[in-house]
Design goal:
14 helices; 404 residues; four-stranded antiparallel β-sheet; alpha+beta; single chain
Length: 404
Amino acid sequence: MLFENMAMAFSAIRANKMRSFLTMLGIIIGIGSVISIVSIGDTMRSLFSDLYKNVGITQAYISIGYWVDDVRQSDYFTLDDLARVKEIFGDEITYIDSGASASAEAIYKRTTLNFDYTGIDYNYIDVQPVDIVYGRYLNEGDILGRRKNVVMDVDSARMLFGEENAVGKTFRTTIYGDTDTYTVVGVYKEDINAFQALMMGGGSRERGSAFLPYTILTWPNDYFYYLHLYASEDIDFSQFMTRMIAYVAKSKGREPGDFRATTAMDEMTQVDSMMGGLSMAVGGIAAISLLVGGIGIMNIMLVSVTERTREIGIRKSLGAKTRDIMIQFLTESAILSACGGIIGILIGVGLVSLGGMALGVGTVVKPGVIIMAVSFSALVGIFFGIYPASKAAKADPIDALRYE
């Protein structure tokens, strides 16, 4: 019986191809929009998650809270504080430095370029891997000797020196009022996708960037504002941060609440929550078009019932029950809606996939969303087909046979 009703439904759809397509259009647009928006949202969440993983999910900055009024010099950190933290927490910390940075002009011959300098320790490459294409990375001697050596990316080298291989070249810059000559000991390259490039300011860079020993950026007073660290990935990060804050507060004669911890994990959770909520909200708005599509299906099914009144009368006179007539029209309504849903899914997935290919990123299309979309579109067809089907089922066979 079910297959017979389905065959009759497809026959009715084929008999009125254009009308059936226009009827499905609302469902196609609705499902396509929902699939596209939810998939784009999931893709963005995945990209942000990967971005934070690249940055370091166990990365944290600890500093005296901005809300503390009576800040003392002893509330800041020193190289000795950093050494003690390394000693006490041992293998729980994979990397630590002062989190220091500076911006200044770099001058080479007649070229002047604004540079962002980041102070690092020699093992920073262990937590933020890069591909050294020329020269070497900073070593322990550079850090301990406070040597004015730098490592920069290929784009920065090209902008400042006019070529990528800048190893051995020198430039002048002023940091903390001290003007001196710095030497390039290494040039690195970092592969990033289009999304990461967009998050970093796009392709048109106007500033250079370079790593130098963090000990230079704590000179001359050796006080710094942050403890910048990466915790080991095989420990309970939340518990570790609680113990770290407690230790820092005790060593400074403060309460734990006086110190502020900013972690990549907290930021990722906030971004993921925001992206998820935004995706659901916009997807919900797009789903309103499904309601419009459902009304279109109800309208066309009412027209179909009117056009096929005589057919209904003949079927009833031949013994068809009220339930049989109702199931026939409900099946047609559900198939009409489900076909629109399938076409909408193909369009939605296709658009998202093409967008991902254009940006060079992997798209996320969850099977659960597709199953839900098809099921929902069929339910829309059944729900909005109930009234037309009921009207057809309740038709009096004698009046239906007399209908012209």
